[in-house]
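The methods section describes the discrete structure representation at length, but only in general terms. What matters is that the chain and its backbone geometry are given together, residue for residue. Nothing conveys this as quickly as seeing an actual entry. For illustration, here is how one protein appears when written out as sequence plus structure tokens:
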Amino acid sequence: MNATRTTGALSGAIFAVLTLVAFLFNPGPASTDGVTVVEYYAGHDARTLWGAAVVGVAIVCFAWFAETFARRTPSGAAGVVGAAATIALYLVAVGCWEILAEIFGGVDIVNVPPEGYQTAHVIQDVGVGAAHMGNFAAAAYIGATAFAFLGSPASRRLLGWLGIVIAAYRLFSAVVELASNSRWSDAVSTAGFLAFLAWVFAASVALAFTGRRATALVPQPTA
């Protein structure tokens, strides 16, 4: 049972690592322009499909972590809603990109009709839009889990305050990503996404460490 609890707690860290690897491996097209999108997925279909599969496994880990966190912390249940919304929107985004890889993977772009480029543009935009809205849900999740740490012993309250700062920045970066088309906003949004992964990783490790420490403090029965 203890091993299961520890694995559930650490599944958040696994999610963060797998997601980072997936997006470094497959960053996606540079813009949502139809021609750019088709050219990218025509030559990166296998990479996109593998990346989507890795993200799928990562999402399973994130769901497991969110449920474990909710059970292990008194006010952690508030984060379940944020986690569910984040998962749903990010899955829509990744699903759109997976569809594009299925449709345009390996095609000769010379043979793609104008309607194909328009379709690619629309699907890519839907995926990007879902990811943008998922960023707000991610900010809500960070905030909910951070407040859960604030109600814990003093040794973990600092982590809670750090989480509040990260949640505020994630919310700020989500707004900037929608409101600005400048290049600096891309850097802000990327940093916000990395901050989300860093928070889940930190919260996961803290939860796992707390569980191990509590187990070690429980008196063992003597013969």
